[in-house]
Design goal:
Strand content: 15-25%
CATH topology of the largest domain: TIM Barrel
Order of helices and strands: EHEHEHEHEHEHHEHEHHEEH
Strand order of the largest sheet: 1-2-3-4-5-6-7-8
Number of strands: 10
Radius of gyration: 19 Å
């Protein structure tokens, strides 16, 4: 499995930024037709992204496309262009419920070329609106093409008419703390990765690091970036140390050798089935 620690948004109508994307070190590049592109330039971005996808050398960072939401008249053309270009995945903004995931997956079916290493997947930004937030409990295992869930404080704040999203000390206000937690819970129920939301103050790298470290501690698998300078922070925070990987291997090996043992002592501490599950999850991501 390829690492997906850092997901960098790249405006789809900027030739310069598209060209710079592969050199940023991001694990995934999200070619954007939505928020970073004005309505007048969406056809331009769509054409540029398709050309970029068709001409790009594969083997580096996977190329995903953020289409416009299903509440807009553009999403079908966006999805068609992404699939025609061979995108590795589609980022679905502002889904109202899992029904929107089904709709996009259905659009992708039949438009996917036969010579692919793996099917294109979907990252649903499920916690970007109040309606989407209230539908997070509907996400279940087996949703077609779904690979990850995320949320967004900027869009959610706009939707509810918030004057600000954070307290003066930088911590999230209650609504956004809830959205962050529920997105993580929904991703866990659905059996997919939880990807942390963007941090808008891209010049505040210290604040971004604290936000990212908290996401890791909560259980998030990676995070989104809106500026290349944020990528290194994401990659650093979401990369386990060699000591952590060694401990995970030791736990898995010990349980495999013990057979049916439910709990044991490893390195002077008691380890049980939840520790085993956590170790296996870590090794799947970074084996």
């Amino acid at each position: 499995m390829k690492r997906r620690r850092s997901w960098l948004f790249v405006p789809g109508d900027s030739e310069r930024k598209l060209a710079k994307g592969p050199s940023t070190g991001a694990d995934v590049l999200i070619l954007d037709i939505e928020d970073s592109v004005s309505p007048a330039r969406k056809p331009v971005a769509r054409a540029m992204i398709r050309e970029y996808l068709e001409s790009a050398e594969r083997g580096g960072a996977p190329l995903w496309v953020r289409i416009n939401g299903l509440h807009t008249p553009w999403w079908e053309e966006d999805a068609d262009a992404a699939m025609a270009g061979g995108a590795d995945g589609i980022v679905l903004p502002k889904p109202r419920s899992p029904a929107d995931v089904f709709a996009v997956a259905g659009r992708m079916d039949g438009r996917e070329g036969g010579e692919r290493e793996s099917p294109a997947r979907i990252l649903a930004l499920a916690g970007e609106t109040a309606r989407g937030l209230m539908s997070l409990h509907e996400y279940r295992p087996g949703l077609p093409r779904l690979a990850a869930l995320s949320w967004g404080s900027e869009d959610l704040g706009t939707d509810v008419g918030a004057l600000r999203r954070r307290r003066p000390d930088g911590s999230l206000l209650p609504l956004y703390e809830v959205a962050r937690a529920l997105t993580l819970a929904a991703a866990t129920v659905a059996g997919v990765d939880a990807i942390e939301a963007v941090y808008a103050d891209f010049r505040n790298l210290d604040g971004f690091r604290r936000f990212t470290e908290e996401a890791l501690e909560m259980g998030y698998a990676g995070g989104a970036a809106i500026h290349p300078d944020q990528v290194a922070v994401l990659n650093d925070v979401f990369t386990p140390s060699e000591a952590q990987l060694a401990e995970a291997r030791e736990i898995v090996a010990a349980f495999e050798q013990s057979g049916e043992t439910g709990v044991m002592s490893i390195g002077g501490r008691m380890v049980d089935q939840p520790h085993l599950a956590q170790a296996r999850k870590l090794l799947r991501r970074f084996a």
